[in-house]
Amino acid sequence: MECLRIVNYVCTIELGCRLNLRDICQRANNVEYNPRRFSALIMKKRNPSFTCLVFVTGKIVITGVKGAGESDIAAHKVRSVFKKLGYNVKTSPVKPQNIVGTFNVGRKLDLIKFQIANYNSSIYEPELFPGLTYRSGGCTFLLFISGKVVITGAKSINMIHESYDKNSLIIKHFIAN
């Protein structure tokens, strides 16, 4: 069985000022703004690679980084962009919102047996979605017949690791024969 790998770390920051998204779209690089489709400006950056949703309120959602260190770097880069554009940006803490991890048990899983054994905390409707949804410890696990597992909903690195440690052992009991 492979170890847990963090694949997405979604976090937010507050700039503490209102933003003119049309103006930013005209003056900043790697941005897209179509208010008829979506109310936020989309900004993409590299090193680390991440995407931001920028709202008129000054709230920024950062997605695509792989951990707290990268999220701090991303937040610094975002603040720098808005400072250079002339906004009075305040520093706020980076708040994790959703940490997503993945692992593979290395063999096929018997999702029907898993659902029967965990009927109070799982849903498996293969005609609607190919994975089983299992809730435990504040996280949601998506289990697939292939043995791949996605964990989502964690608010901290500790939370996702604790959930993985506790539930990976349970999941291994349902490896198909």
Provide a descriptive summary of the structure in words.
The protein is an alpha+beta fold and 177 residues long. The chain folds into 2 domains: 11-96, TATA-Binding Protein (2-Layer Sandwich), CATH 3.30.310; 105-172, TATA-Binding Protein, CATH 3.30.310. 27% of the residues lie in helices and 33% in strands. It is built from 4 helices and 10 strands, in the order E-H-E-E-E-E-H-E-H-E-E-E-E-H. It has helices at 21-27, 68-84, 111-117, 157-172; strands spanning 5-14, 31-32, 41-45, 50-54, 59-65, 95-104, 122-123, 132-136, 139-143, 148-154. It has a 10-stranded antiparallel beta sheet with strand order 2-3-4-5-1-6-10-9-8-7, covered by helices on one side. A hairpin with a 4-residue loop joins strand 9 and strand 10. The two termini are 16 Å apart.
Quick summary:
With 177 residues, this protein is of the alpha+beta class. It has four helices and ten strands. It is elongated.
Spell out the key features of this protein.
TATA-Binding Protein; 10 strands; ten-stranded antiparallel β-sheet; 177 residues; elongated; 2 domains; alpha+beta
- Low-confidence stretches are none
Percent range for helical residues? 25-40%
- Number of helical elements: 4
Shape: elongated
Q: How would a textbook summarize the main sheet?
A: 10 strands, antiparallel
Strand order of the largest sheet: 2-3-4-5-1-6-10-9-8-7
- CATH C-level class of the largest domain: Alpha Beta
